[in-house]
Amino acid sequence: MCGIVGYTGPKNSVQPILEGLSRLEYRGYDSAGICLKLNGKLDIVKKEGKLENLRSLLAQSNPSSNVGIGHTRWATHGAVNNDNAHPHGNEDFAVVHNGIIENAPILKKGLLAEGWNFKSQTDSEVFLVLLTKFAKEDGDILKAISRAFQTIQGNSAFVIMEKATDRLFCVKRSAPLVCGLNPNTNEAFVSSDPFALIGYAPEIYFPQDGVIGCASIMNGIAKMAFYELDLSPSSRYLAQKNAMSLDATSKGQYEHFMLKEIHEQPGLIEKLAAFAIKGEGKKDFEQLRGKNPDFFHITACGTAWHAGLVIKNFFEKFNNIRCSVEIASEFRYRSPILKKGEVGLFISQSGETADTLACQELCKSHGLPTYSIVNTRGSTLYRDCDLNFLIHAGQEIGVASTKAFTQQVLTGYLMAMGYAGKLDQTEVYQEIKTLSDRVATICQESSKIKEIALKLYQKKGFIFTGRGVYFPIALEGALKLKEIAYVHAEGYAAGELKHGPIALIDDNMVNIALLGPELFEKALSNVEEVKARRGLIFAIGPKGHSELHQVSDMCYELDFSGLPTLAPVMVNVVLQLLSYHIAKLKGTDIDKPRNLAKSVTVE
Ligand code: AGP
After folding, report:
1. CA distances from 459 to 454, 481, 489, 501, 529 (A)
2. Which residue from 121, 324, 496, 497 lies 20 to 30 Å from 168 (Cα-Cα)?
3. Predicted TM-score (pTM) of this structure
4. How far does residue 308's CA lie from ligand 1's centre (Å)?
5. CB 89 within 8 A of CB 20
6. Pocket of ligand 1 (CB under 6 A)
7. What is the C-alpha end-to-end distance of the chain, expressed in Å?
8. Which residue minimizes the CA distance to atom 9 of ligand 1?
9. Ligand 1 centroid vs 597 CA: distance in angstroms?
């Protein structure tokens, strides 16, 4: 979604704003803009496309202003063009927005009827016009912000800059927002992600919904103040040190963040095992022992949902816990039966995905304990859940999630071992160690997978198939290929193919067939069905099965020994690299694929 950065302080705001936006660009890269105060006036510069377009525009004039707000956009309302880029401003105010104003069309109609003008087709500009109108009526910016915010509906975060002073204001409802202070340099910041403030603001503040934040410099001292919507002082904010680190922001020797993050997995797998089985994390998993819930309502989106489907297998197999795995955007608007003794489990890399957060609120409002499997410490999901299981994947920059999936599945496995009281069993640690070694081997053999990609990258359609726990892996493999290579790919339960999708099979359709040791014969016969219709088959399965070579056009053999439970994670790494190489051969933007964003903070 959109990235926001604001600065007020003694220095030129351009550098910290552009640096912050470059760190948030993975959230949305349709356009970028900045508002500065030059010669006492609000000056907006904005440009369609990636941040570098804005950077080169600013380089022509090298402006300097000690206060400013910046924005990178993921378009929701209004085409991708300069007019719809943020900030939106007029003579008195400038606004940047992340979220959706659901009642914007009605409000805009009323404001147009009152004679107000609009320069864009965005919903966001409605907030600017409301603010301007109320400020004229009340002559008090705080009151005007409060009224404008209470007039709009929808999950949104706003940062406001005014001509009259160098203060910055912010307010949000179910959207990420963080304020920052640097008491040493007397600088104040506002952003949509603490990641943008690393190295700038050691102190960060998370205001709650409906709390107006005001960042100001008073007599050279940087201050943060918070107000309720009735303008009384507010204490509804969380203050903490900014513990995040920047080491994830370099690609190292890799050409793409996605490739770097795939290669980080062997080390991360081992680190998580050491943390959870031998380290300070053990207590988090051990506390689950014998506390099996009656039912797990697992909800998530995208790749995290696929991880949930795999984890369900673990809770059923090792803990006899009944589970449902729900797509969050559907679950939140159904009337799910939520009973005492049941638990809501939310899986999210970012911890900011709007639909997943809404499901957490829903379960909480029905009195269910809420647990998270999350990557981002300090995210909204992490702050709102009763119990959090951090996946220790480090910052994931590539929009296509890779290492987070592996760590999410592993964390689910460790929870199942915790419930079963099996954490100390050597075979548990040994299996994870074996997984790390096998994934390392696959990464070292990446060129083998590139060979396969060379034969497949011009193909137009892909059907990924798997049985049992390999069905979610088929879904995940298809998603990765769609996300970064822009080809039509579907994941199916292999047994489901003959109930319809097999009609798609011809010599132009590629079947990526996943065959684990369990149900091998069943899966093989499904591949035979595809072969009978001349589909092109790339099979991934266990070593030592000649029939696999006979039935497939291309085959990637894996050693499944010592991996009775976690082999699906190993198979998925092959698919991660396959998608990467196909996308590379197709020349797409692998780290910032079109139309996507890393964390989806709108519904
Ligand atoms: C995965 O590659 C995608 N980026 C997307 O499907 C993602 O998994 C989904 O948006 C959920 O994000 P979350 O894990 O941050 O909640």
Report:
1. 10, 12, 10, 18, 20
2. 121
3. 0.90
4. 12
5. no
6. 301-304, 348-350, 353, 356, 399-401, 483, 599-600
7. 10
8. 302
9. 9
